[in-house]
Amino acid sequence: MKNHLLEREIASDVVKRFVNLRESTSRRALLIKFINQPTVEAITNLVNGRIVRRKGNTGATVDEEYLPHAAAFELCDDPQVREQAKHAAAVVLHALQQMFIGEPKRDGYSFGDLSRHVSELYPNRTFEDETLELGLYLATDLNVLMGFGFLQPGETEIATFQIAESVTNMPSPENRWDRVMADIEQFAAPSPGLPHEPPEIAQWDKATCFSFVHPNE
Questions:
Q1: Secondary structure E strands in the chain
Q2: What's the fold here for domain 3-77+184-194?
Q3: Span 72-121, pLDDT tens digits
């Protein structure tokens, strides 16, 4: 198996465990599942490429566990999961823009603040908390949050967040996902016979946020 295919399979495993169980994936489980393959190198590439991240943001250890960045969802081999992620992100991005306009500035906002704005923005639609939680989690990689804190110890949800001024320059929130994901083509297998086009907007490395600790943790 070529490395980029292995990396995509590993990213898909991390995403599916996150979506289905809201859990991280252990390094040991990946090494066993993909035994006799360059799994260590593939994991290193995924971490360095901001496709997956180490839980706890610690240094490399044999016991480390991984959680997906937004890019891992784009690489996931399940098209339904990819569309679910993109849809959840778009809903949350719309709400974050409205929050910047309508909410008084303060040190941090909660999931409840976001949920209330989604209800106001979409009065005729109902979104499950899991959808909004996923969208907010993905927003941490879409260059729209100035700061955020994970809910401990799982780090699968955002406990508190600050909205970045960049949301004021987002005329099409539903297109934000595609713009940011344009720079992860190196991890996708190129289609046979088709030239490899460079990404139109190389934004991925810029879509980073400072993470702070929730005061109640």
A1: 25-26, 52-54, 65-68, 145-150, 158-163, 210-211
A2: Arc Repressor Mutant, subunit A (1.10.10)
A3: 999 999 999 999 999 999 999 999 999 999 888 888 999 999 999 999 99
